[in-house]
Amino acid sequence: MKIVTIGPFPPLRGGISDFHYALFKQLSKNNDVSVINFKKLYPNILFPGKTQYQDKKVNNDNVYSVINPINIFTWFRVKK
């Protein structure tokens, strides 16, 4: 089965990103899973910490970091 998920994914940090990675690993065991990831979650001026990225890198050809939550035109690009 082919599955596409959309949401935060490593190297973005946070609990939702970690959960999405765990979900991806489990679904990938029996399915063809692709991930549409965010380029970043917050604009730099609004981000309270030093970085919104973690050291964890996921080497997978099925992860596409294309969504910018501030730029609505990237959502149309994903739709195509």
What does the model show?
The protein is of the alpha/beta class. It has one domain. 26% of the residues lie in helices and 21% in strands. It contains two helices and three strands. The chain has helices at residues 15-28, 73-79, and strands spanning 2-6, 32-38, 63-67.
Structural class: alpha/beta
Main sheet makeup? 3 strands, parallel
Number of helices: 2
- Element-by-element helix/strand order: EHEEH
Number of domains: 1
Strand content: 15-25%
Gyration radius, in Å: 13 Å
How far apart the termini lie comes to 20 Å
Instruction: Compute the number of strand runs.
Output: 3
Mean pLDDT: 84
Read across the widest sheet, the strand sequence of neighbours is: 1-2-3
Shape: flat
The low-confidence parts are none
| Share in helix | 25-40%
Short synopsis of the structure:
By secondary structure, this protein is α/β, with parallel strands linked by helices. Helices cover 26% and strands 21% of the residues.
Short key terms for the protein model shown above:
single chain, 80 residues, alpha/beta, flat
Q: Which helices and strands appear, and what pairs or packs with what?
A:
Layout: E1 2-6, H1 15-28, E2 32-38, E3 63-67, H2 73-79
Parallel strand pairs: 1-2, 2-3
